[in-house]
Design a protein that fits this description.
There is one protein chain. With about 375 residues, this protein is α/β, with parallel strands linked by helices. Helices cover about 50% and strands about 10% of the residues. Strands 5-4-6-7-8 form a 5-stranded parallel beta sheet, with helices on both faces. Helix 3 packs across helix 4 and helix 9 packs across helix 12.
Length: about 375
Amino acid sequence: MGAGHDTVAAELARRARDLGHEAEILDVLELLPYRLGTGLRGFYQSSVRHYPWAYAGLYRLFLRRGAGSRPSGVPLARLAGDRLAERVERFRPDVVVPVFHLAAQLTGHLRARGALRVPSAVYVVDFAVHRQWLHPGNDLYLCLTGQATAEVREDIRRPALTTGPCVSPDFTADSPSGPPGESSSGSPGADAWRSLLARYGPGRTPVVLSCGAWGAATGLAATAGLLTDRGYLPVAVCGRNDRLRRALSQVPGVLAPGWVRDMPGLLHAARALVDNAAGQTAVQSLAAGLPVVGYRPIPGHGEEGVRRMAALGLTESAGDEQELCDALDRLTVDGEARRSRIARGLTLFRDGDPLSRLLALTERAEAG
């Protein structure tokens, strides 16, 4: 479901392997029979791209936190139970770590039935913990913020810890603090990006517009045009949505580079991120020391996440064009507003490494 969950899984696996452990990554959608996973992915992608009102309705019905009985994801998730059990029997892991809510429903169901004999530790990668992340059968929940941790404990009375995000160290290199185009000790690819941005928009301040791996966004062309008129260089990261990329390429003064393979370099070369999902790109930007402004979020978890990040002081949220421009005018120039916003964003990473929590869980399980 997009690239964020895959990115987190890959980074956890990399950290484990670097410490000499073995790690295997499974896609729960591929474990579902009858190509149900492909259908779910296609439906969700179409909804967020073309029918956001439909996804907003589904979010309210199935996912949003709150009292009252709502449909559960267990019946769908348990269709993948036999295939997961086969992989677990073959690989013999010490812990299973869901990083996607449907996988959390599956492991919780199997643990409650005794069909999964190793601990399951859910890593919640959303800032707003919706209901489908939660199943009381899981052993442990790892959360991005203390607020999310408290909500998990309140809602299902299960152990939960705050670990912060899991971001590649490529993003956490020293970020540049000087003006655009000035050399720094940031990501190795940053200088190449600065050179490109300077050639494409000389004298303009580069701002990244992000809409995820699927290129789901509302009014992105209008936003890009607005920023161009205000003297910015919008860099529209459209994921794999080539139709959106081609459309934005027609907007004068907008750089739409297609799929970006060096996101650390781009984020270290830019001066701010305009975000609409509170997903992995927003977290990576905070790690890189890049101020983030939430604007026109996608419905459901994106809207709630953007609002939650802003309420925690990690980012800013703009309700209209003027608020967006005002925020960028303050945050893209060197000064106290930019420094304090960057410092506040970096506090998200002070709670340590989620992998160490997972290893501690396996040690307790072995001792027991």
